[in-house]
Amino acid sequence: MSPGGVAVVIVNYNGERLLPECLGALAAQTLAPAEIVIADNGSRDGSLALLRAGHPGIRVLELGRNLGFAGGANRGVAATSAAWVCVLNSDATPAPDWLAQLTAAPRDERTWALGSVLVSAATGRIESAGDQYSPDGYAYKLLRDRPLDDLPKRPYPVFAAPGAAPVFRRDVFDALGGYAERFFLYYEDVDLAFRAVLAGYHALLVPSARVTHRLGATTKSLARGRFYVARNSMWCAARCLPDAAPRRLARRWAVELRSNRPRRLAPVEIAGRLAGLAGLPRALHERRAIQARRRAAPGEVDALLRAPDGLR
User: Taking a C-beta distance cutoff of 8 angstroms, is the pair 168, 266 a contact?
Assistant: First the structure.
């Protein structure tokens, strides 16, 4: 690992019930983080009191208002000084050797992110063994709901490190401009990963690095998630997908509307798509700049849009 170790940034919003377990897991690491920064998005619960009383050595950025996950993470990363930084969800609990396993992984000069296997807190099975992106305009999780025994033994390249605990090279994160803050919540990680792929980088999934994840514990609202995914997935495709075919994307979005459950949230999903359409002119304007900075050859991008053999 580069000099300076790995900083950990946690974005917090009313996460009083989640922070003790997350911070306890960081304290138990066999390789300690270089620093821990909590970016607090204007919490109104007892989060800040808990941190002051029980964790006086942790730096807390009191942002005063909810800037979304993307805005909070960007400010947290900016406050760190290490060469690598992890943006860790407060509902994630890393195994004791998590950071040691990540830092020991072999990588090359084009490796910009290190990913961990997310283990479902509810089932003990794989939640994500790498995040992938389909040319149809949606992200999906590798080996989801499969047993841990199905994991490969060696690290392998993926489109994106799973979003609950990605570790980034700070210099690349900064060069890419960080997370797109207008996404606010959801798909900001996919969009950032896509911009890294277009710039010629790849992520590496380290199967021996494990993080238990309580999926959805930080947002709690299904409706909120459905809205932001519907809107932001449109913006991500418009900004980043090299061969964005409108009819192909529209067919996929229609399939999602028919198949997503619960059905009572269909109006919320439609509202998200309409918001996506309203923001499409800006997304297409941003697309020009993103694609102009592209350094990866078409074959390199296509390779990372295909799931590794046997891992779909």
Answer: no
What is the DSSP code (8-state) at residue 233?
H
Which burial class, exposed, middle or buried, applies to 77 when counting CB atoms under 10 A from its CB (0-12, 13-18, 19+)? buried
**pLDDT band at residue 221, thresholds of 50, 70 and 90?**
confident
Nearest-CA neighbor of 18 among 74, 99, 88, 78? Answer: 88
Are the beta carbons of 152 and 104 closer than 8 angstroms? no
Name residue 196's amino acid. A
Extract long-range pairs of 306-309: CB within 8 Å, 24+ residues apart.
307/132, 307/142, 308/130, 308/142, 308/156, 308/157, 308/158
CB neighbour class for 311 (10 Å; exposed up to 12, middle 13-18, buried from 19): middle
Contacts of 124 (CB under 8 A, 6+ apart): 148
The torsion region of residue 122 among left (phi > 0), alpha (psi -120 to 50) and beta comes to: alpha
Which among 249, 251, 238 is positioned nearest to 287, based on CA atoms?
A: 238
pLDDT at 217 over 80: no
Task: Give residue-wise pLDDT tens across range 301-311.
Answer: 999 999 888 78
What own/partner pairs with CB < 8 Å and gap ≥ 24 does 23-30 have?
23/55, 23/58, 25/93, 25/94, 25/95, 25/96, 25/98, 26/88, 26/94, 28/96, 29/94, 29/96, 29/97, 29/98, 29/99, 29/100, 30/96, 30/97, 30/99, 30/100
For residue 264, give both structure tokens: 């009572």
What's the pTM value of the predicted model, to 2 decimals?
0.96
At residue 297, does pLDDT exceed 80? Answer: yes
